[in-house]
Amino acid sequence: MEDPNLIAILIPADDNNYAENAFSGDKNKIRCLPPTQKIEEEAPAISSREATPVCGPFQNDHENHDNQEKKHRIRLAFDQPPKDPTKGYAFGTDQQKCDVLLASRGVRGTSGVHFHITFDVIRGERRLVLRDSSTNGTAISYSGQAEEEVRHHFPWILNLEKKEGKWKIKVHVRGLIFKVELASHQTCEAEYEKKLTDFLKLSQTADPPLGGLNIDSYMTEVAPSQSRTPGQRPVYIHEEPLGKSSFGQVDRVIDVSTGAIYAYKTFHEPPWAKHTERKRRQREKWLDQIRREIRIMMEHPHASITTGAGETNADRCGRNT
Question: For the whole model, what pTM was predicted?
């Protein structure tokens, strides 16, 4: 039966059992759903996690169901509100501030408060979002896309629409990975919407808890005159191809921070002559054409077109993809 209180279930997904061991810790007991099947392998100690490279009533009911039943899972729900409703559910290593501990304090790569999961209104839609507030950053993959796109002080929409089916969402914090299974509310939609409305009101009116008055800065927008750092550039995920030519191709992409849909043009570098000087001249002529097209698009911008994920350097746009 669908539960109007339920927001999402977080399921360990890394091969090293970092998320499994973190979720099963005593400090997470209040939100932890124990395995319903026997766990065959013992997880490593939470304090032993070393830094590694980034690598029921649910929308994906039957996928890896047996595997999920063997894991400790985190339940996010309205009937277990966050410590600080103004920021949402906090994840990290700080026991005082966090609702879910990801590692012991001092574990390399995980901040005291690494990120929050909460609701926000974006482009008129009520969205479940993850906002990073860490030093080393977070990555979120959508059906395998963008898992290496690490960002910090950056928001991602978790309940992002897909033209067909659902995105498979995973959160990556260095070696620790977990899946986000969003709850379905088809049979209790009115009740769920009321609880969501109450949650949003509380997030705007509640007083921060004692010790929680530090300000987290989320870089959600940058003025046109300001440059973005690599850790704050937009992340686009590809949904479907729209067209293709010898010059390049156009895909339908989604901005994971806003849900905005764009036509994304990728330029493909053609084969060149073997002679070095002739190859250089051919490539320079081709790059001039790319620069000209980019200049035209910049002089006559269209709200639904983006090039090279915001990069306007012709040499970068001209790389093989």
Answer: 0.77
